[in-house]
What does this fold into?
Amino acid sequence: MSEKILKLGIPKGSLERATYDLLGRAGFNISGSGRSYFPSIDDEQIRLITLRAQEMSRYVEDGVLDAGFTGYDWIMENGSNVKEVCELLYSKATSKPARWVLAVANESDIQKPEDLAGGIIATELVNVTQKYFREKGIDLKVEFSWGATEVKARLVEAIVELTETGSSLIANNLRVIDTVMTSTTRFIANNNSWKDDFKREKIENIAILLNAAIDARTKVGMKMNVKRADLDTILKILPAEKSPTVSDLADSEYVAIEIIIGDSVERQLIPQLKRAGASGIFTYPLNKVIH
It folds into this structure.
């Protein structure tokens, strides 16, 4: 019989705060985050351990952890044989995929990857970068960078660096000449843990809650009262792909409508709904949206 504990890895570093925030919105209460490598969680069947995202897939593959969060980039870099449970579209700054880019100094004469033949590249993502140039048939040297990689763009021919917004590259007067790979956060599991009924169900439950929390980030609930005479007009204004809930009210001349919409649509809809006769309109944030 397997131990009724799921050992779950939390990425230390840039993804740490975003991961704790996501788990919180999924309904988990965590204490000691940021101060301990073993924070507490209000689920006695889960044990949290914080490790660097760069190492996570190795420890999950080896069974030191049952599951964990890391970037697709580090799974590829480590060549880890793990079960990918789901993709989680969140990161330290945005919900967009992060990019590992090939960048040079603005003043460099290099315009394309082929111009780097015979040169030196500095990066933390050595294996993926070597594969990228190997597939292009470009012979050069890839050096591991221990950090501050942007600075090295003026010491070697180019760097491969992770970026989400591009602001750091711009601030360091660097120019992107290609994208080596894109990466998003993945929830991964050890292959043997995935075969264990208890652990698999626990992992799947966490994945459902996390994705529900992510989906809720960009949506709001909306309620309004509408005269029955205006109902058809109001329904035509609401997004066609959504199916609103229509409920009777004590006043038989009115109905209540409730719908979930994207938060970017909300500001466009409210004035239209008001002009079409809707009243008592209000919106509210959502914790989870499960499809």
In short: The chain has a mean pLDDT of 91. The chain has three domains: 6-93+185-216, 98-182, 219-285. DSSP finds nine helices and 16 strands in the chain. Residues 197-217 form the longest helix (21 residues).
